[in-house]
Amino acid sequence: MVSNNVNSAVLNWFSLGDIDESSRTFACAAVGLPINKVSHPGHSGDFNRCLILLKFAPQLRSKMFSHVAPLSGHWASLIDMWSEIEETFIGEAGVGFEKSSSAPKTDALLRQIESQAVASEDKNTCKRSFPREPFASRLMNNGL
User: Fold this and answer.
1) φ and ψ of 118, to 5 deg
2) Residue 24, pLDDT above cutoff 60
3) DSSP, res 89
4) For 45, phi and psi rounded to 5 degrees?
5) CA–CA separation, 124 vs 142, rounded Å?
6) Is 83 exposed, middle or buried (CB count within 10 Å of its CB: 0-12, 13-18, 19+)?
7) How confident is the model at residue 134 (pLDDT cuts 50, 70, 90)?
8) Contact predicate 119/112, CB 8 Å
């Protein structure tokens, strides 16, 4: 179910979606919620959950570079290559693994990005660079 209101869509995903730490990180960063632990999609199953989040709340695509990429060098690398990863994953497995139960090319691509990010990332240098309005205030302002 897709909602026109991003907060409503994300709440719907939180209640109905298949959630892991990486998709939770993505969702929280995109809407400005606090993040306890930054986690990245490490394999195709994690990436699939992020794509399902985007099906629930397609408006979050516009926040990927501004809100999610600044979380870490790893997220920045993932977001930079998002289109390629998504195309690869959809081509071999499909969202929800509708075509295949595995996605080895996507897994290899995610491992490659992780290796590069780990090699070049200087820990604790990526900070959030956007203003954050309390989530409850945003909900109230949007009539929820």
Assistant:
1) -65, -40
2) yes
3) H
4) -65, -45
5) 34
6) exposed
7) very low
8) no
Position of tokens 């996605």? 103
CA distance from start to end of the chain:
17
Quote the tokens at residue 16: 């109905």
Q: Which two tokens stand for residue 106?
A: 């996507």
**Tokens at 31, concatenated:** 């809407």
The mean predicted confidence, pLDDT, of the chain is 85
**Residue type for 66, please?**
S
- The Cα 118–Cα 96 span in angstroms is 28
Task: Please give the structure tokens belonging to residue 93.
Answer: 């497995």
d(CA 34, CA 89): 29
* Half-sphere exposure (Cβ direction) of 82: Cα atoms closer than 13 Å: 18
2 pLDDT above the threshold of 70: no
49 and 20 Cβ atoms separated by less than 8 Å? yes
pLDDT at 120: 73
Per-domain boundaries in the chain: 6-129
Token digits of residue 85? 């990863």
Location of structure tokens 């109905």: 16
